[in-house]
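Complex record, two chains
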Amino acid sequence: MQKEIAIEVNSLVKKYGDLAAVDDVSFTVWRGEVFAFVGPNGAGKTTTVEILVCLRNPTSGDAGILGFDIGERKGQQQIRRRVGVLPQDFNTFDLLTVKENLSYYKKMFDNGMDVDELIQLVDLKDKSNALYKNLSGGLKKRLAIATALVNDPEVVFLDEPTTGLDPRARRDMWNLIQGLKEKGKTIFLTTHYMDEAEVLADTVGIINHGKIIAMGSPSELISKFGGKTVLIVEEGGEAVYDSLSQTLSDVRLENDGDVLATIKKKHDLPNAILTLNKSKAEFAELVVRRPTLEDVFLNLTGKKIVEGELH
Amino acid sequence: MRRISAIVVGALRMWFRSKHTLFWTLAFPVLLMLLFGAIFSVSQNPVFDLHIQNLDMVDGEPTYWSKAFCDMLNKTEILNLHVVDSAENATQFIEEEGVERMLIIPPGFNSSVSTSNNVSIILKTVPAEVDTASATVGNVIGQVVEIFNTVVTKLIPPNIVSVKHESIVSETFKYIDFFAPGIIGMTLMTSGVFGAVAWNTRNKELGILKKLATTPLSKLEWIVGVVLFELIMGSISTIVIIAVGVVVFDLKVIPNIFSVILIISGAIAFPGMGMVIARFVKESDSADAAANAITFPMMFLSGSFFPLEFMPDFLRQIANALPLTYLNNGLRDSMVYGNVSSALFNTSVILGVGIFFIILGSLITSWREE
């Protein structure tokens, strides 16, 4: 089946005075995929989203959604009908119920999903008559995502949908987003959580200081920029260090007694374990640490993202 | 129309569930009406208490001229005279009874007047800074003394001229009838401006406006929806004010189409003004301050509480530029005087202001981020 373009962005620039919030950004999002835009706070994620959903004008460059030009008035009208948007930090009407809130937003469109069906989709059936102000943080986010689906959109923009949620609520949201993908929606997700992008995205664009510094599938990015798998033998000491050094070329003994061995080839890991077994050397625990998108970002920028901030 | 009705119905639901807004749209106008109604329904003209001690007595009876002077004071109908026994010690009496104003006619008043010798009556009052009514009472007594002197020197009988106070409108009206349109105007202004500013600013802060801007809803539809909701609120407040006025204070209003059009125009103009103000307010913390800055001066300068004639010329010029002045004048013309031509002029002005602010609001309200 031939892939169709959902979002196409060419050399997009947004400047505020001398500061380029978005600096020559280009990418393509295919229909039906989850595209994650990953980066720290202030990297240019939200500005890019707001340009794409026609809330801001770009300084230069162009973009199209579902074939409609974001710079043309008629194109903007079509885009507003066909996309669903969850703005960053969005809260809806406190004193309306779940159902009333969704009906409110649905009436802004000519067509859309049945509200009861939508409530079922986001698993809020038991809370359909509860006021928004009485919902928990996780349920509020579910309703917020539902407001982005009222018009049964082809493309859904979710700007930091899990920020501020506890781990369990975040995982619930991941399931919801995966469910939307299964329904064929194209999802443009922004996040500063690397694990979220790794789990959900087909394609990840890493953005820092307004520029895309890497793009590809999570596995591509990890194999290209993430570094090697490391075998960690906790509290192995010199005995473990000596025996592993006979098998592997890159072994280090840390001050706390942990031994770190880089796995460079396919057979390095089973060989290392066999060697350890033969040596009868004692150790506390064996850990295999595979590289993640966090390592990709660290290797590319020299910094880590902690709760959205660079460290 | 579907989008506008969604905005209106949604806002009505939230209004009904919010104790805070219920208070400001229903209870506050009632309190205002009861308060002002109680103040202004008791008496059409102010009457000031004055204690008077006549020390010019013969055989326990006041002398001819001292009695004549007291009678003249009484005929002003502005002073409510309380006679203090001549045997009382005036200073002690004032202290013990907490008297604020006391006039003492000295012994020998009659003989001095008869022989054209100077004589002083004594007016004891608390300082005018503490009791502003004392200044008025002093002026009234001064006027009476002037007339009394003319009477005495020209030997005119003392009760040849008197003043009969008559209202310039139908006798059936009371002061509350004039005051109620001012309260209606003020309520339409405050609920309209505050409602629209608060509604817009809060929704901006919650991200709701940004969200709506990503839907096919237009700015004009949003503004019309908010203004229509405020129109319903304003109408409810007006009905409550009139109902309380009629039931509690026997308020009399002349029902006519101009009153209805004026109330609708006012209920459109002020939310429209609020939408324009909201364009420049970034946070809900500053929304009240911005709304107050506009409504507070207008409340006092537009004749809601007292007639414009009380104000200096330059303030009257300012009042003529304020829409609430035309709403207040128009409501009084239509509801109280039944003056159709004047009501028509004021209705046209306030309707024009309403349309102007809605168009301006939709032009300057920004859906897009800057």
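Note: Chain A has two domains: 5-224, 226-293.
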